[in-house]
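Table 4 source record.
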Amino acid sequence: MANVAAARGARAAGMSFRVTMSLIGGVGVLLLMLPTLIVLVTSFTSGYSLKFPPPGFSLRWYEALVFDSPEIIDALTLSLKLAALATAIATVLAVGAAVALARRRSLAARVLDSFFMAPLTVPSLALGLGILVLFNLESAGLSFYSLLAGHIALCAPYILYTTSASYAQLDPALLDSSLCLGASPMRTFRRVVLPALWPGIASGAFIAFMNSFDNVALSLFLSDARSEVLPIRLWHIIEDSLDVRAAASGVLILVTLVSMLIMERVAGLSRQFR
Protein backbone atom coordinates (compact mmCIF):
# COMPACT_ATOMS: atom_id res chain seq x y z
CA MET A 1 0.00 0.00 0.00
CA ALA A 2 2.87 2.32 0.81
CA ASN A 3 4.30 1.77 -2.66
CA VAL A 4 0.94 2.48 -4.29
CA ALA A 5 0.52 5.68 -2.28
CA ALA A 6 4.06 6.76 -3.19
CA ALA A 7 3.39 6.08 -6.89
CA ARG A 8 0.15 8.07 -6.76
CA GLY A 9 1.92 10.92 -5.00
CA ALA A 10 4.65 10.93 -7.67
CA ARG A 11 2.06 10.96 -10.46
CA ALA A 12 0.15 13.78 -8.77
CA ALA A 13 3.35 15.78 -8.32
CA GLY A 14 4.32 15.19 -11.95
CA MET A 15 0.87 16.22 -13.16
CA SER A 16 0.89 19.31 -10.94
CA PHE A 17 4.30 20.28 -12.33
CA ARG A 18 3.16 19.83 -15.94
CA VAL A 19 -0.03 21.81 -15.36
CA THR A 20 1.87 24.65 -13.63
CA MET A 21 4.51 24.82 -16.35
CA SER A 22 1.84 24.70 -19.06
CA LEU A 23 0.02 27.63 -17.46
CA ILE A 24 3.24 29.63 -17.11
CA GLY A 25 4.18 28.82 -20.70
CA GLY A 26 0.71 29.74 -21.92
CA VAL A 27 0.82 33.10 -20.14
CA GLY A 28 4.29 33.74 -21.57
CA VAL A 29 3.16 32.94 -25.11
CA LEU A 30 0.10 35.15 -24.66
CA LEU A 31 2.20 38.09 -23.47
CA LEU A 32 4.55 37.67 -26.43
CA MET A 33 1.82 37.22 -29.01
CA LEU A 34 -0.68 39.79 -27.74
CA PRO A 35 1.13 42.89 -29.11
CA THR A 36 1.46 41.22 -32.50
CA LEU A 37 -2.23 40.32 -32.56
CA ILE A 38 -3.19 43.86 -31.56
CA VAL A 39 -1.10 45.30 -34.41
CA LEU A 40 -2.60 42.83 -36.86
CA VAL A 41 -6.18 43.63 -35.82
CA THR A 42 -5.51 47.38 -35.81
CA SER A 43 -4.19 47.24 -39.37
CA PHE A 44 -7.77 46.60 -40.54
CA THR A 45 -9.18 49.70 -38.83
CA SER A 46 -11.57 52.00 -40.65
CA GLY A 47 -10.50 55.00 -38.56
CA TYR A 48 -7.86 57.67 -39.16
CA SER A 49 -5.64 56.92 -36.19
CA LEU A 50 -4.12 53.92 -34.47
CA LYS A 51 -6.44 52.88 -31.69
CA PHE A 52 -7.52 49.56 -30.21
CA PRO A 53 -10.14 48.27 -30.48
CA PRO A 54 -10.70 49.76 -33.96
CA PRO A 55 -14.00 51.60 -34.54
CA GLY A 56 -14.64 49.43 -37.60
CA PHE A 57 -12.96 47.09 -40.01
CA SER A 58 -11.85 48.00 -43.52
CA LEU A 59 -9.17 47.26 -46.13
CA ARG A 60 -8.76 50.96 -46.95
CA TRP A 61 -5.28 51.21 -45.49
CA TYR A 62 -4.05 48.19 -47.38
CA GLU A 63 -5.33 49.83 -50.55
CA ALA A 64 -3.52 53.04 -49.59
CA LEU A 65 -0.38 51.01 -48.97
CA VAL A 66 -0.43 49.56 -52.49
CA PHE A 67 -1.71 52.53 -54.51
CA ASP A 68 -0.79 55.66 -52.53
CA SER A 69 2.45 55.00 -50.66
CA PRO A 70 5.41 55.16 -53.06
CA GLU A 71 7.80 56.03 -50.23
CA ILE A 72 6.90 52.83 -48.39
CA ILE A 73 7.29 50.77 -51.57
CA ASP A 74 10.72 52.32 -52.12
CA ALA A 75 11.73 51.55 -48.54
CA LEU A 76 10.45 47.98 -48.95
CA THR A 77 12.51 47.53 -52.12
CA LEU A 78 15.62 48.82 -50.37
CA SER A 79 15.04 46.56 -47.37
CA LEU A 80 14.63 43.49 -49.58
CA LYS A 81 17.78 44.37 -51.53
CA LEU A 82 19.76 44.96 -48.33
CA ALA A 83 18.58 41.78 -46.62
CA ALA A 84 19.17 39.65 -49.73
CA LEU A 85 22.71 40.97 -50.28
CA ALA A 86 23.64 40.75 -46.60
CA THR A 87 22.31 37.20 -46.36
CA ALA A 88 24.04 36.04 -49.55
CA ILE A 89 27.45 37.44 -48.53
CA ALA A 90 27.06 36.26 -44.93
CA THR A 91 26.14 32.77 -46.16
CA VAL A 92 29.37 32.46 -48.16
CA LEU A 93 31.47 33.69 -45.24
CA ALA A 94 29.65 31.68 -42.55
CA VAL A 95 29.64 28.38 -44.45
CA GLY A 96 33.37 28.68 -45.06
CA ALA A 97 33.97 29.48 -41.39
CA ALA A 98 31.75 26.61 -40.24
CA VAL A 99 33.52 24.05 -42.41
CA ALA A 100 36.91 25.31 -41.24
CA LEU A 101 36.09 25.45 -37.51
CA ALA A 102 33.31 22.92 -36.81
CA ARG A 103 35.51 19.92 -35.88
CA ARG A 104 38.61 21.71 -34.65
CA ARG A 105 39.22 21.73 -30.91
CA SER A 106 42.29 23.96 -30.79
CA LEU A 107 42.39 27.15 -28.75
CA ALA A 108 42.64 29.25 -31.92
CA ALA A 109 39.49 27.63 -33.33
CA ARG A 110 37.55 28.32 -30.13
CA VAL A 111 38.75 31.94 -30.08
CA LEU A 112 37.74 32.45 -33.72
CA ASP A 113 34.36 30.82 -33.12
CA SER A 114 33.70 33.12 -30.16
CA PHE A 115 34.81 36.11 -32.24
CA PHE A 116 32.44 35.24 -35.11
CA MET A 117 29.54 34.64 -32.72
CA ALA A 118 30.14 37.85 -30.76
CA PRO A 119 27.47 39.92 -32.60
CA LEU A 120 24.82 37.64 -31.08
CA THR A 121 25.98 38.43 -27.55
CA VAL A 122 26.16 42.20 -28.04
CA PRO A 123 22.96 44.32 -28.06
CA SER A 124 22.15 45.66 -31.51
CA LEU A 125 22.40 49.25 -30.28
CA ALA A 126 25.90 48.66 -28.95
CA LEU A 127 26.89 46.81 -32.12
CA GLY A 128 25.58 49.63 -34.32
CA LEU A 129 27.33 52.27 -32.22
CA GLY A 130 30.60 50.34 -32.31
CA ILE A 131 30.50 49.93 -36.10
CA LEU A 132 29.62 53.63 -36.47
CA VAL A 133 32.62 54.61 -34.35
CA LEU A 134 34.81 52.33 -36.47
CA PHE A 135 33.62 54.00 -39.68
CA ASN A 136 34.24 57.43 -38.16
CA LEU A 137 37.77 56.46 -37.16
CA GLU A 138 38.42 55.38 -40.73
CA SER A 139 36.82 58.61 -42.04
CA ALA A 140 34.29 56.57 -44.02
CA GLY A 141 30.94 58.24 -44.53
CA LEU A 142 27.61 56.53 -44.06
CA SER A 143 26.03 54.99 -47.13
CA PHE A 144 24.23 51.89 -48.30
CA TYR A 145 27.53 50.01 -48.08
CA SER A 146 28.09 50.90 -44.44
CA LEU A 147 24.60 49.63 -43.74
CA LEU A 148 25.37 46.46 -45.73
CA ALA A 149 28.56 45.84 -43.74
CA GLY A 150 26.70 46.11 -40.46
CA HIS A 151 23.96 43.75 -41.60
CA ILE A 152 26.53 41.19 -42.79
CA ALA A 153 28.08 41.23 -39.31
CA LEU A 154 24.58 40.75 -37.87
CA CYS A 155 23.57 37.92 -40.24
CA ALA A 156 26.70 35.77 -40.32
CA PRO A 157 26.50 34.34 -36.75
CA TYR A 158 23.01 32.87 -37.33
CA ILE A 159 24.18 31.01 -40.43
CA LEU A 160 27.42 29.96 -38.75
CA TYR A 161 25.49 28.51 -35.80
CA THR A 162 23.05 26.39 -37.81
CA THR A 163 25.67 25.31 -40.37
CA SER A 164 28.08 24.24 -37.62
CA ALA A 165 25.29 22.22 -35.99
CA SER A 166 24.58 20.45 -39.29
CA TYR A 167 28.28 19.84 -39.94
CA ALA A 168 28.74 18.32 -36.48
CA GLN A 169 26.12 15.68 -37.38
CA LEU A 170 27.86 14.73 -40.64
CA ASP A 171 29.48 11.27 -40.49
CA PRO A 172 33.24 11.67 -41.11
CA ALA A 173 33.22 8.25 -42.80
CA LEU A 174 31.30 9.79 -45.71
CA LEU A 175 34.11 12.26 -46.32
CA ASP A 176 36.79 9.59 -46.03
CA SER A 177 34.90 7.30 -48.40
CA SER A 178 34.52 10.04 -50.99
CA LEU A 179 38.22 10.89 -50.86
CA CYS A 180 39.25 7.23 -50.97
CA LEU A 181 37.11 6.70 -54.08
CA GLY A 182 39.08 9.38 -55.88
CA ALA A 183 36.96 12.48 -55.46
CA SER A 184 38.83 15.73 -55.00
CA PRO A 185 38.25 17.78 -51.83
CA MET A 186 36.20 20.32 -53.84
CA ARG A 187 34.06 17.59 -55.42
CA THR A 188 33.58 16.01 -52.00
CA PHE A 189 32.44 19.36 -50.67
CA ARG A 190 29.99 19.92 -53.55
CA ARG A 191 28.57 16.39 -53.71
CA VAL A 192 28.72 15.21 -50.07
CA VAL A 193 29.19 18.07 -47.61
CA LEU A 194 27.01 20.77 -49.16
CA PRO A 195 23.86 18.59 -49.57
CA ALA A 196 24.21 17.47 -45.96
CA LEU A 197 24.57 21.05 -44.76
CA TRP A 198 21.66 22.38 -46.84
CA PRO A 199 18.99 22.28 -44.06
CA GLY A 200 21.28 24.15 -41.66
CA ILE A 201 22.34 26.69 -44.28
CA ALA A 202 18.75 27.32 -45.40
CA SER A 203 17.48 27.69 -41.83
CA GLY A 204 20.27 30.06 -40.85
CA ALA A 205 19.87 32.10 -44.04
CA PHE A 206 16.14 32.45 -43.45
CA ILE A 207 16.63 33.64 -39.87
CA ALA A 208 19.40 36.00 -40.96
CA PHE A 209 17.27 37.44 -43.79
CA MET A 210 14.29 38.08 -41.51
CA ASN A 211 16.53 39.58 -38.82
CA SER A 212 18.18 41.90 -41.35
CA PHE A 213 14.89 42.88 -42.95
CA ASP A 214 13.28 43.76 -39.63
CA ASN A 215 16.28 45.34 -37.92
CA VAL A 216 15.84 48.85 -36.50
CA ALA A 217 18.64 49.43 -33.99
CA LEU A 218 21.56 48.72 -36.33
CA SER A 219 19.97 50.56 -39.25
CA LEU A 220 19.47 53.70 -37.14
CA PHE A 221 23.23 54.12 -36.69
CA LEU A 222 24.50 53.03 -40.11
CA SER A 223 22.02 54.39 -42.65
CA ASP A 224 22.08 57.80 -44.31
CA ALA A 225 19.20 59.87 -45.66
CA ARG A 226 19.21 57.93 -48.94
CA SER A 227 19.19 54.52 -47.26
CA GLU A 228 15.96 54.55 -45.27
CA VAL A 229 14.87 50.94 -44.84
CA LEU A 230 11.27 49.92 -44.28
CA PRO A 231 11.31 49.55 -40.45
CA ILE A 232 12.86 53.02 -40.11
CA ARG A 233 10.35 54.48 -42.57
CA LEU A 234 7.40 52.99 -40.67
CA TRP A 235 8.84 54.26 -37.40
CA HIS A 236 9.09 57.79 -38.80
CA ILE A 237 5.50 57.63 -40.06
CA ILE A 238 4.22 56.64 -36.62
CA GLU A 239 6.49 59.16 -34.88
CA ASP A 240 5.47 62.07 -37.09
CA SER A 241 1.81 61.58 -37.91
CA LEU A 242 0.44 58.28 -36.63
CA ASP A 243 -0.50 57.49 -40.23
CA VAL A 244 -2.18 54.11 -40.09
CA ARG A 245 -0.45 53.06 -43.27
CA ALA A 246 2.19 52.08 -40.73
CA ALA A 247 -0.12 49.12 -40.17
CA ALA A 248 1.72 47.69 -43.16
CA SER A 249 3.37 45.80 -40.34
CA GLY A 250 0.29 43.60 -40.58
CA VAL A 251 1.52 42.48 -44.00
CA LEU A 252 4.97 41.82 -42.58
CA ILE A 253 3.51 39.72 -39.77
CA LEU A 254 1.49 37.58 -42.17
CA VAL A 255 4.40 37.16 -44.59
CA THR A 256 6.72 36.19 -41.73
CA LEU A 257 4.30 33.55 -40.43
CA VAL A 258 3.79 32.06 -43.88
CA SER A 259 7.55 32.06 -44.53
CA MET A 260 8.21 30.30 -41.23
CA LEU A 261 5.68 27.59 -42.08
CA ILE A 262 7.26 27.10 -45.50
CA MET A 263 10.78 26.90 -44.06
CA GLU A 264 9.63 24.45 -41.40
CA ARG A 265 8.19 22.30 -44.15
CA VAL A 266 11.19 22.55 -46.48
CA ALA A 267 14.21 22.66 -44.16
CA GLY A 268 12.91 21.66 -40.72
CA LEU A 269 13.65 25.05 -39.16
CA SER A 270 12.91 24.05 -35.56
CA ARG A 271 15.10 20.93 -35.76
CA GLN A 272 18.21 23.04 -36.33
CA PHE A 273 18.02 24.47 -32.78
CA ARG A 274 17.50 21.30 -30.79
